[in-house]
Amino acid sequence: MTTQTHPVDHELVEAAEDVARTRCRGDNHTMAAAARARDGRIVTAVNAYHFTGGPCAELVVIGAAAAQGAHELETIVAVGDRERGVVPPCGRCRQVLLDYFPAIRVIVGGGDRLRAVPVAELLPETYVWADHQLDAG
After folding, report:
1. How does pLDDT run across 50-77, given as a tens digit for each residue?
2. Which residues are catalytic?
3. Which end of the chain is more exposed for a tag (fewer CB within 10 A), N or C?
């Protein structure tokens, strides 16, 4: 698979880093995410860790964006607290991002190796939920 890279949205990375630095406290909130909507807005959120599997920051930012009327996200990044830097999305988040926003770009990598790639490239042999739904009637 050939990786398509797009320009890295450094403002988005900085927004996530700021939220991770200022809003992540203790073990309940350890990750921050930032997403850019098609209209240019940046939406941020933190995870809600719980031993039963609370939602990741990427999933919380999807809900926050919807609550703010930003229904078309173009790019997303997650950043760890305590200066851990950019953290790639887990498998569940990759699948949810693909299902909600098939064209979204995800910022991955670290330091001077940051890159923005289409979410589908993070999922080999991609499963697209909509492609497997039976037509009613």
Report:
1. 888 889 999 999 999 999 999 999 999 9
2. 58
3. C
From the number of C-beta atoms within 10 Å of its C-beta (0-12, 13-18, 19+), residue 79 rates as buried
Task: Report residue 56 as tokens.
Answer: 């990741």
Sequential DSSP letters for 37-64? ETTS-EEEEE----TTTPPPHHHHHHHH
Distance CA 65, CA 77 (A): 14
Using one digit for the tens of pLDDT, what is the confidence trace for 1-31? 456 778 999 999 999 999 999 999 889 999 9
Cα–Cα separations (whole angstroms), residue 65 to 35, 62, 118, 127: 8, 5, 19, 24
- β-pairing, 31-37 vs 85-86, is unpaired
Instruction: Report yes or no: 33 and 79 within 8 Å, Cβ to Cβ.
Output: yes
